[in-house]
Amino acid sequence: MISGLALAGYGATLVFDNPPIIMMRIAVWALVAVAVHDVVFAPLCVALGFAAHRILPVTWQAPVAVAALCSVVLGLLAIPVFDKPGMHLDNMTVLDRDYHAGLWISLAVVWVCVPAYLLARRLLPVRQNQVVEGEGADDVGGQPPAP
Predict the structure, then answer these.
(1) Does the global pTM surpass 0.85?
(2) Which residues have a Cβ under 8 Å from the Cβ of 52 and sit 6 or more positions away?
(3) Strand ranges (DSSP E) for the chain?
(4) Which sequence spans correspond to the domains of the chain?
């Protein structure tokens, strides 16, 4: 906790070293990020969660949720380099990768992992929960003697 407070304090000193106009821009960006999260992203996640709960089988829900979270993170990480900022005609080596293809390949890898996980889960040995779910009311053994 102390290290977190120390880092927060250090971050605050870095922010307050900026001119007031830059601090105002930082504050506006922070408020816009909170508003976009609360007004757009959170309700969208709730709606998709309810839809997935009704549409997807139970075994698919967790892997699809993890893949969706990874997709959102990859999309957010791709935003800063998607339009290749900083690249000029006199220096084409800055951000010289194909970020569009990289994003699509990484998204494909993430979503291929969903059925691969479900297939691997099916091929792995039987888990205790599956044994318990497969038992009926007649499978109950006798109770141990009372002490």
Answers:
(1) no
(2) 61, 64, 65
(3) none
(4) 11-55, 58-123
